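Figure 6 in text form: structure in, sequence out.
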């Protein structure tokens, strides 16, 4: 047990020096609010350093078009309350994010499909810039201070919140306002262990069961080992109880456990949510997304007609990955007939090839765990927060920002965007409240 012998007081204490906490700290300090951060790690932004394959996909410019930017952007988010993210995104969207980082000294650059990164293409520079910004503003950051417990005083508004931390310093931290910016459950070695959920729950909040989002799919398929390592351009559909619920196009990766790659990661959330409900989930891969079913049949028939003297395996060379061909032959029941010629293909076998090239179905058994996922679906219930300020309806003076709440975004920079938008909006709301 810790023997707390001293206390440190600030107007605002932010728990968590991740994306949302850092954004909130800079914004609050710029408004003139005495702000400090409590962080369990020995440095700030450990999770940020892992993002975007070490490059940090800060936001996504592809939705920054026209006057309805916030509406278009809000469609990239998921929550039990679908309309919840919009007022936050209206306050601080993509343009404001780009400007904010520019002013901080971190110009962004746009790569494929609107994905925005720091011009250095190094996630570490995002941390460095935040470190400098906090230093410039004299924001104290108490590292190695994991918050174990928060007590809320009913009698003393100035000392409303008391945070007890896991530290050798034997200090308690008191504040008038508290921001909970503790993240979700992904990247477990980045300090996000779900302890923020427990803190919010002990203050009366409800947890919507978290599941991994932006995550790989484990599938049941006998020839996964043979397919492992293949990357192909395709379209993937996720089917729940036989109905297509979402489709994505892009580079699909086959692995020994199942499927990955950007379109699969995008579909991972749907799979996780429905598997948790006990639904039957299938992923269907379209190997020729640029052609209709009729066009695929026409193309194959032409190919088999022109090269009737070649083996069936040879007829696929040139438009299918070579490692895929023996597996397709097995699927069609001719894996044991390597010398079968196109001219001898039966109608039944042709029918299997027609189907499989457009609808190659894999039963999804599970997703990868939080350890491999990039975002958390679920979290603290948004109905217990005021939509445009992110203040708790249950504990006035407590605000939430970032992934800790039940909002998650699509793959492509949208989760960090939520952290920037929510961190900024919460800090601005507090500023308005204090200086009204
Ligand atoms: C591998 C990986 C790659 C990703 N890539 C991208 C990407 O390129 N683009 C994108 O948009 N999103 C990406 N994400 C998602 C993105 O990183 C998160 O959505 C975002 O960091 C969430 O910000 P946050 O502030 O809510 O929480 P976090 O950034 O997770 O920060 C929470 C902080 O709170 C601290 N903390 C937690 N509990 C306590 C406690 N009890 N006491 C004190 N401190 C505590 C943690 O140590 C941590 O520093 C990626 C995620 C992962 C795991």
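Output sequence:
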């Amino acid at each position: 047990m810790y023997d707390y012998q001293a206390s440190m007081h600030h107007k605002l204490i932010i728990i968590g020096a991740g994306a949302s906490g850092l954004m909130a700290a800079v914004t609050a300090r710029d408004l003139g609010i005495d702000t400090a951060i409590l962080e369990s790690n020995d440095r700030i932004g450990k999770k940020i350093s892992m993002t975007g394959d070490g490059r940090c996909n800060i936001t996504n410019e592809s939705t920054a078009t026209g006057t309805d930017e916030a509406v278009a952007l809000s469609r990239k988010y998921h929550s039990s309350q679908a309309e919840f993210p919009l007022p936050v995104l209206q306050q601080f969207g993509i343009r404001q994010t780009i400007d904010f980082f520019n002013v901080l000294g971190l110009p962004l650059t746009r790569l494929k499909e609107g994905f925005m990164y720091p011009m250095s293409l190094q996630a570490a520079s995002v941390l460095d810039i935040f470190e400098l910004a906090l230093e410039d503003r004299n924001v104290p950051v108490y590292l190695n201070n994991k918050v174990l417990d928060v007590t809320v005083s009913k009698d003393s508004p100035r000392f409303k919140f008391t945070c007890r931390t896991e530290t050798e310093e034997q200090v308690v931290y008191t504040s008038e306002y508290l921001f909970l910016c503790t993240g979700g459950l992904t990247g477990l070695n980045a300090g996000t262990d779900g302890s923020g959920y427990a803190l919010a729950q002990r203050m009366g909040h409800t947890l919507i069961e978290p599941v991994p989002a932006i995550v790989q799919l484990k599938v049941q398929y006998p020839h996964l080992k043979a397919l492992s390592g293949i990357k192909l351009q395709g379209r993937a559909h996720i089917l729940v109880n036989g109905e297509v619920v979402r489709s994505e196009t892009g580079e699909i990766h086959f692995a020994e456990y199942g499927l990955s790659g950007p379109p699969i990661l995008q579909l991972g959330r749907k799979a996780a949510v429905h598997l948790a409900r006990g639904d039957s989930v299938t992923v269907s891969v379209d190997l020729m997304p640029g052609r209709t079913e009729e066009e695929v049949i026409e193309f194959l028939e032409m190919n088999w007609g022109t090269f009737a003297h070649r083996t069936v395996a040879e007829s696929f060379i040139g438009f299918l990955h070579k490692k895929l061909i023996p597996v397709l032959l097995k699927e069609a029941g001719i894996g044991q007939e390597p010398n079968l010629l196109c001219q001898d293909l039966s109608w039944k076998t042709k029918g299997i090839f027609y189907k499989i090239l457009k609808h190659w179905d894999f039963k999804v058994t599970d997703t990868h765990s939080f350890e491999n996922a990039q975002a958390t679906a679920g979290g603290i219930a948004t109905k217990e927060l005021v939509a445009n300020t992110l203040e708790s309806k249950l504990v006035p003076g407590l605000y939430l920002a970032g992934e800790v709440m039940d909002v998650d975004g699509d793959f492509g920079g949208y989760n960090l965007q939520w952290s920037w938008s929510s961190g900024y909006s919460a800090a601005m709301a507090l500023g308005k409240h204090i200086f009204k």
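Caption detail: The chain has a mean pLDDT of 95.
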